[in-house]
């Protein structure tokens, strides 16, 4: 992909996330709790330890940056980075509320990090790499800022049809709003662009990392059917599209999503499946 196309695509992504910022800010505390289970395998894969200098890319509402700041302790530091300052509002608020002093927020594209070469022990990224139009170049940029022997760990969605929440969302949105490729404000393709097994590992290898590994992580939570478990993700996914759509459409879409989950209900619970993929790589020491 040439530089102009990358720039144009990145601008589209930036505008999209800027429009979603307030919805993510509003849900920042809630999603941090809900998605805590996503942090554990990523933090383990990254081999985070006290004292490390860590760059969290595409930090959004602040995870895993805030959890990692607590782990690296006062001798370590986290540099939380995102393309959109609007997305980091909730992260800044939560960092202040938690009294975290070892975290710095910066606005930056993952393709052009504001750091010197070999600055970090670890580069991590949760649900961000797939939004970059040139993921192998983003991996090369992570390699540049890593110390020799340092490690990257990326977490991305697996195939869309293997995570229940998105299956229900897509069916509801198509029923209420029409074919999704015609609804400009909703992009339910890009988040899954690295979901095919092997795609993440290929990007990391092409970016120059060694010892590249990719693994599948699946969760099968059973959530209480009467709890509003899907509302935060709903707002974050559809909030921008519905901002100008009017109350009737918002209501119809919510009803369709609720009906979709109700259909899956087993007694008091809804069984969900979640498929994410984790890719790791190391900067060669030689
Ligand atoms: C799904 S959110 C992930 C937020 C957080 N890491 C989490 O897991 O909850 C995706 C984030 O990627 C950011 N992003 C998209 N493209 C980016 C780029 N080229 N460089 C840095 N951040 C980017 C967006 O602004 C957004 O905050």
Automatic annotation (TrEMBL):
Q: What CDD domains does UniProt report for this protein, alphabetically? A: AdoMet_MTases
Q: Which residues form the Methyltransferase domain?
A: 54-150
Q: Which domain of life is it from?
A: Eukaryota
- InterPro entries assigned to the protein according to its UniProt record, in alphabetical order: Methyltransf_25, SAM-dependent_MTases_sf
May I ask which residue range the UniProt record assigns to the signal sequence?
Answer: none
Q: Which GO terms describe its molecular function?
A: methyltransferase activity
User: Could you identify this protein by its name?
Assistant: Uncharacterized protein Mb1440c
- What species is this protein from? Geodia barretti (Barrett's horny sponge)
What taxonomic ancestry is recorded?
Eukaryota, Metazoa, Porifera, Demospongiae, Heteroscleromorpha
